[in-house]
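To start, one record:
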Amino acid sequence: MAATEFDLIRHYLTGLGARRDDVRLGVGDDAALLQAPSGQCLAMSTDTLVAGVHFPEDAPVADIGHKALAVNLSDLAAMGAEPAWATLSLTLPQPDAAWLEAFAGGLDALARAHDVALVGGDLCRGPLSMTLQITGFVPADKALRRAGARVGDHVVVSGTLGDAALGLRYWQAGEQASDDQRALAARLHRPTPRVALGRGLRGLASACIDLSDGLVSDLDHLLTASGVGASLNEASLPVSDAARRVAGVTAARQAALTGGDDYELCFTVPDWAMPALSSVAADTGSRLSVIGRVVSGSGLCLADGRSLPAEASGYRHF
C-alpha cells in the first residue's frame, strides 16, 4: 500500500527544527498552539518558492530545503526580529522518499541553527513548489522598517552583492568547472540570512530591507517608503573576489546593482550611529560596506552624476 500524505508528513516533516518550550502543540493537529511572549510584537512573513522560478529545477535538494527557510529568515532579519516558528506547505509531483529526506535535512539544519520549530503545514500533489510562513518576535519600539531613512544617512549593505545572480548564470550554462564558479553557485543555493545582524541594528538603523530582487529594486522600495532618494557610489559596491575573477569588475558591479537572490541586508544609518555600527559588525562577524548617502528628492542616482543603466531595474515577477 502506497504511503499517504499523512505517512509522509509523520516520517519526514514532523519534529523538524528546534525544540521550543513555547510550542504547546505542534505538527499533527488541525492547528498549532503557540505561546507568544509578553511585551513582544509578532513579526510574520510568507514566501513561496516555485521550481524553475525561484530555484533551478536541478538544484541540490538539500539546498532547496535550506533556501525555503533562509528567504523567510532574511525577511525577519530585515525587521530586527528573533525567529521562532514556521509552517510549510509543500507541493510535490509525486512522493519521493529520497527527495523528501534530503529536503527535510536541509531545512532542519538551518531551522536548528536559528532555533526555529516547524509547527505545521500541508503536503499535496502538484507542480513542485513550497510556501513557508515564519513568525518571530520583536519589541514593538525596536522593529526595523522600510520607512525612516533621513537625508544625510549612510546607505549600508552587508556581505557581497551579485554572487547569486552570477551563480545562476553559470549554473544554467552548466559551467561549474572552477572553484570560483562553484562558490558563486553556493551563494545562489544556500543564502545566509543575516538574523544576528538584524537584531544588532535595532536602535541604530533608521530603515532596513532585505535584498531579494536586486539592490536597485529593493533599495528603491525603502526610499519610496521613506520619501527620500539616494546617491550610490558604484565603486563602493561590495563584490566578491570570485565574482571579479570570473565575470570581471564591470559585470560584477552590474550584477551587484541588479542581481537578485542575495538576501543581504540594505539599511540606512545616521552619522551618530556609525561608531556603534562598527561594533555590531565585529560582534556579528558581518562585512558591512557604505555604498552611498540618502539625499532629498526621490529615486536613485550614481554619485558621479551618471544615470543608472536601463537594465538596472531588478527582478520582477510580472
